[in-house]
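Quick one: structure for this chain?
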Amino acid sequence: MVGFLHEYELAVIKALREGRKLGLGALAKSAGLTVDKAMWAVENLRGSGMVEVERRASSSTVVTDEGKRYLKRFPEEELIRRAKAGPMRIGAGDRIALVWAKKNGWVEISEGKASLTAKGREAVASDSYGQRELLAAISSGERPGKGADEQKAMEALVERGLVDEIKGSAEITVSITANGRAVETDADVEGIGALTRELISGGRWREVKFRGYDIGSRFEEAHPARLHPMHEFINVIREIWLRMGFMEMSGPIIESSFWNFDALFAPQDHPTREMQDTFFISNPRYLDIEDVELLGRVRRMHSQGWNARLNDEISRQAVLRTHVTSVSARHIRKFAETLEESYPIKLFSVGRVFRNETVDYKHLAEFYQTEGIIIGNNLTLSNLKDTLTKFYSQLGIDNIRIKPSYFPFTEPSLEVHYYDEKRGSEIEIGGAGIIREEITKAMGTNKSVLAWGLTVDRLLLKFMDIETLSELYGSGVGWLRGRRGLEV
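Got it. Here's what it folds into:
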């Protein structure tokens, strides 16, 4: 004896008892149900072994515009008709015809001339060609047969782009099983599926019969929405900076060379501007520099510091920013005339940067940086080191090493490294320093500015089970669906 059936399940069983296979639409009509209700009942009955479901993808074959030009005769047929008179030279327009004539074994080439083979002479005499005949049949609305010759001809037509196979929706047919037929009359009574307030208050729950639930029935795997690990990690970084009292800043990805290089005291002949490091934009090729006063001060900075005159055309070149320090420069300028009681000003950003790097396990041409600045009075390297140490400690990284380095826009300059236990080596994860006085004066402030630019991507080598950064940007979604959250 089976469990009690729902009324939809009962209607489907009764509709199928005649022993016929029914499509889903016909079944729904026979059972007096909507298609959705019938599908729900069928899936339940299939899980109980009472019905069988067949799914077959429907498709249709249509002749393409190219194929319509081949309906009367194929070019290889024309070729062998011409070659009937004897060996012939092949012209430039005979390339396609020759390819298929050789595939069919109709011709052979000798001393640059095509001659008919015995098989080719038979083809000319019979005036029958499987590809052409199948193409004509498809054009008339017939479906291709299942024979080996027709299948081979069909493959050739698809390869040549003469027909297209258009996939349609899946066709579903349902049939009853022996288990379904064994349902007895006394089981064909709808059981109660839910214990309601009315059943309890009226006491009817003692009299009714309840349907059983199959907790082992199959179900489709659900894939809830997941954040990409980079997005998730950026949120972690943003939250840390906000907890440390920083405000978020942002700026354009496409920058002028003025903001990306000139304003940061990088000379216009510096190697980092060359094509192997920087992506230059062709549209727009140039960007205007609206702050004329600032432009004049930056010109004087380069003249005094590098004994070089700024080339306006180079300054206006549009580039994909190579660091987020361009955003910091804009905000040093923005807060140059802030009231004294507002200092220190603490700002951070997280954004994409672009460099024409050689791609390896820790380098990509596009990656993320988190940039930060503190603008204030009498700021020192101790303040900078303390800020970086606190940031990384909140990420669970306590083994950073800070080393002297060089950057055009900071003096002194530092590099930040951490020891990668998986690879047994140190990895550089950022640069930092005190913004040079030449730059702060050009930006219009006499304050000291601490600055840093820290990698985001490379840290995921520590927090995720990946070997290379490129694994983060694969096209498959299976790893994203199954991955665990970041343990940061």
